[in-house]
Design brief:
Layout lengths: L10 H16 L3 H7 E2 L20 E2 L5 H14 L2 H21 L10 E5 L8 E7 L2 E7 L5 E8 L18 H12 L3 H7 L23 H7 L16 H12 L19
Parallel strand pairs: 1-3
Antiparallel strand pairs: 2-3, 3-4, 4-5, 5-6
Helix pairs in contact: 1-3, 5-8
Length: 271
């Protein structure tokens, strides 16, 4: 994998994030707090998904009163940069459209849960998560000042809205534009290696559960999991200089959305 140099979270932001999480918990009654707080090293922290659920760990926005929702959203605003917050809120707003498209009540802007893992403190590790359809962010803060954001999932369906009150909405516009820019920057040989199928696989192959490679046609399985020693995609060292710059921007951009981040480094050694 590519070696990234982590950027420590500034002390002022770390204190503010800790205070926002503590305020969220303090504003809950005993029953809601039991549903919102879990041990840091328990199984709930690993129980995440990008599917819409009604039984995910945490307290859903639909189960909060007005003041509690505002404190929960303040936690989200504190944790994310302005750009990251705009993406998260756009993804959540799309649920009103998806609800009409799918005719399923599980799609709802209030069906996002907030959970805190451990006790918010500057002296011990703790974490928190927002989890729902196409938005799952787990953050863990450590006493040495680092903030890990993993698992980290942002998706959008539809990718672009045409018509209605959300007309023109593109929550992941920059990621899409950079991905197509990367593809456009590849020469014919690179494209032949990078494009592994002429149509979509239908779903994401990585996530909280086992990878469903067995569901794919054999031709796709061979491209994704080739014989030992073979390469199924276009490697970094194989890219032309023209493709390298947009490739790195496409990869590194995703890691720069948390609050307090000063940017990402250039790629280090591939391990």
């Amino acid at each position: 994998m590519t070696d990234f140099t982590p950027t420590p979270l500034p002390a002022a932001v770390r204190h503010e994030l800790c205070a926002a999480a503590a305020a969220f918990l303090d504003g809950l009654d005993d029953d809601r707090r039991r549903r919102a707080q879990y041990p840091l090293d328990g199984p709930a922290r690993r129980d995440w998904h990008y599917f819409p659920r009604l039984d995910q760990p945490g307290l859903r926005l639909a189960e909060m009163d007005g003041p509690q929702r505002e404190v929960a959203r303040r936690l989200l605003r504190t944790a994310l940069s302005e750009r990251g917050l705009a993406k998260a809120e756009a993804i959540m707003r799309l649920e009103t459209l998806v609800r009409r498209m799918e005719e399923e009540s599980v799609y709802h802007p209030d069906n996002y849960s907030f959970a805190v893992f451990g006790q918010p403190s500057d002296d011990t590790p703790w974490g928190w998560r927002i989890d729902g359809h196409h938005l799952s962010l787990t953050m863990v803060a450590t006493p040495d000042g680092d903030l890990t954001v993993t698992p980290h999932f942002m998706g959008a369906n539809p990718a672009e809205v045409h018509g209605g009150d959300l007309d023109g909405t593109r929550p992941l516009a920059e990621e899409m534009d950079r991905a197509f820019g990367l593809l456009d920057g590849l020469d014919q040989g690179e494209r032949a290696q990078a494009i592994i199928a002429d149509r979509s696989m239908g779903d994401i192959l990585t996530g909280p559960a086992a990878s469903p490679l067995w569901r794919l046609p054999k031709g796709w399985r061979r491209r994704i999991c080739p014989r030992p020693g073979a390469r199924a995609s276009c490697g970094w060292s194989q890219l032309t200089p023209t493709a390298c710059a947009p490739t790195w921007r496409s990869v590194s951009w995703r890691g720069c959305g948390r609050r307090g981040s000063s940017g990402c480094t250039s790629p280090g050694p591939v391990r």
